[in-house]
Fold this protein.
Amino acid sequence: MPERFEVTMPDGVRLNVEVTGPADAQVTAILLHGWTLDGRAWHRQVEALTTASVGRAVRVVTYDARGHGHSSCMALPTATVAQLGDDLATVIDTVVPTGPVVLVGHSMGGMTIMEYAHRHPAHFAARTAGLVFVSTTAEGHTHTVYGLSPRIARLIRLAETTGAGVLARCGSWRAPRALLNALRPSIRWMLFGDRCDPSDLRLVTSAVARASLRSIGGFRASIGAQHRLDTLAALAHLPAAALVGDRDRLTPPPCAESIAAALPATELTICPGAGHMLMMERPDEVNAALSGVLRRVLAEPPPRSLDATPAGTGV
């Protein structure tokens, strides 16, 4: 059973954290969920890692981002991916004070990793031993056309941006479950590809119901504006993998391809027929990529700097 506790951020926001695996594991995998989701999105990866051959060597950490899941709401100015990068640094220092970490990010979670690397380069370099990017982007909404024509996509983006601004001012309120159930066909179309397990759709709908309206609306602007290809280019020495579905309407294949181009040693996997929820739709492929990066990390002795908590961070 996972150990569950809260970690308090410097501004008082409390993050819900779950840890699975031995405290003396050789490496810790930190799994970061996407926008409007929560740590439950990774349940198939957590199960696979704890039962795989690398299980005893790996500790797994998941947590709900601020304003999501069981974590507390936050002030609107902190609803940014930059703040999420700062939160990640604090989680690492608090939950994994020593040893190498492999960072695994889905959608906004991948962007959180990039912000952590950008805002805390010394901290990142001292602690991070591997990367896995799942259905994410380093170019904001550059490639997001929702699988539609560019003209219609622009209209949808305008409506989405306007609606996000309204939701951001709604504070800690949650969307009514009845409304989300009515929107379930739209959620299925936006987030999933050819196949969708009904239990996955229920989990995603439940996660959206837990996210505060402030987080649903507030994070939208910084997600669309982020550009971190230059940051990624400095990380080319790390074992890494990038995965995307070819039916992903939010972060389509060009997003993963640009990440792989910035990180030439990255193993790029494009999953036919899959949408944005790749860790649910294609768990075997995601688990294989994650296990591959972990094995590469475990095969290499960590640098000495990984055995101590970094003395400081860079901004």
User: Anything to note?
Assistant: The beta strands are 3-8, 14-20, 27-32, 58-63, 101-106, 128-134, 240-245, 267-271.
